[in-house]
Hints:
Elements: H1 4-29, H2 51-59, H3 63-74, E1 78-82, E2 85-89, H4 93-101, E3 107-108, H5 113-119, H6 129-143, H7 145-148, H8 152-166, E4 172-174, H9 175-192, H10 198-213, H11 225-253, H12 264-270, H13 282-313, H14 315-330, H15 340-344, H16 347-359, E5 366-370, E6 374-376, E7 379-381, E8 386-389, H17 392-395, H18 437-454, E9 455-459, E10 466-468, E11 472-474, E12 479-484, H19 485-494
Parallel strand pairs: 2-8
Antiparallel strand pairs: 1-2, 3-5, 4-12, 5-8, 6-7, 9-12, 10-11
Helix pairs in contact: 2-3, 5-11, 8-9, 8-18, 9-13, 10-11, 10-13, 11-12, 13-16, 13-18
Amino acid sequence: MLPLTMELEFFITSWLLLLVFLFSTFLLFRGKKYPDRFPPGSLGLPVIGQSLSLLKALKADKVDKWFQEGITKHGPIWKASLFGYPTVVLHGPAANKFIYTCDGNILNNSQPPSLSRIFGSKNLSELTGNDHKRVRAALVSFLKLEVLKQYVTKVDAEIQHNLQTHWHGKQDVQAQPVIKTLTFNVICSLLFGIERGPRRDRLMPLFQDMIEGVLAIPVNFPFTKFNRGIVARRKLLPMIIDLIHEKREALQEQKQEANHQKDLISSLLSIHDDDGSPTMSDEEIVDNIIVVMVAGYDTTSSLLTFLVKLLANNESVYSNVVREQEEISKSKAVGEALTWEDLTKMKYLWRVASEMLRINPPINLSFRRATQDIEYGGYTILKGWQVLLSQSMTHMNNDIFKDPTMFDPTRFEKHAPQPPPFSFVAFGAGPRMCPGIELAKMETLAMMHRLVTQFTWELLKKDESFKRNPMPNFDQGLLVRIKPIKAIFISSQASL
């Protein structure tokens, strides 16, 4: 049975949304004649529509089933009402290509209201046209491979500190929370330039509240997740603005000095147009720092957590990963930092990570908004409507990936048959490809190297389930029992 506060939230939210939106729906759609080739399906109740059923499917990790039911009932293109907006649902490689490459002036990247209210209207996912290109170029200038190579040692130091603090000396560990702490600290260091201490500690609960609010039903009551997300953003804003002012002053004082390792805020402040004016406004910096921080914090930690679970359950994959990582360790002195060259040798580990991203993509929904009536697949998508796709609908398609539920890293070998373009979209595709892909890769490879060369582990609950809220969260944080490799070696020697 749900706690009373949750029941109350559900009851009040549902009825308030119904009453408020009935009137707005009447105003918006009165007298509107739908075209003959209108997608099949139902919009359901105003505002609520199918939002609750989709959220329920997300939490149960049954999004594939939710989409498939709609396809079975209505065909490959159908309509629903999600998070306050009428929506057309698409799937397949052609739909992925359409959504990821369509001109932003026709199909823009407007997100559900809960996302834009919490992330801010100037974040990369909301921008279109030249604004999107300008801000994306500024972010990529820091997140591109050539720049990130300089930060491997810094990332590795955060990993070593995390293992020393949260793993060594412990018998049982909740893997997901301590991995989230790691990814939070890495991004705090690289994006904000904030070292360990109270300032970092104040940020973490705010980001967690924002993440939980991004796909909530957009009702701003004190007891709702959406409200907590908005409050968290409000508290975070002055902290980021203070950081921007500090970084700007520091840059002015150090402008004559070489500075090869800037944080993201400093990097964005340093970029100017040909006329000397800043490329990004302070508002754009704030919103994009927030969206990159939230994306990097939860998506990479999700991938790492699933890899911990996989290696505990799959002896063959585990053995191959350990063999590759031990070869790298043999060439390093004890305690020596990882380098970019070390990461380039972890080819099998990245194939394993890519296969995990195929089966369990951290983000499973992509939204767009039609800025004009659009013809697609023989149907009309009306101006103002959302367009939705799910990454897993191609990732788990048997016609694209044979035996899609089987974990098989060989799918990503260099000479393996390649799936059709726009089939594997864990990081997006085209001009909307995630700019943080190389940072996620760096963190994943470095963390898993340190983990498998320092510990072995087993799951305390082999079938521990997880829910998506909207990111995957294991019910008990993925409980593992760990043993340090050195202790195992000593124990085995003593028994001889």
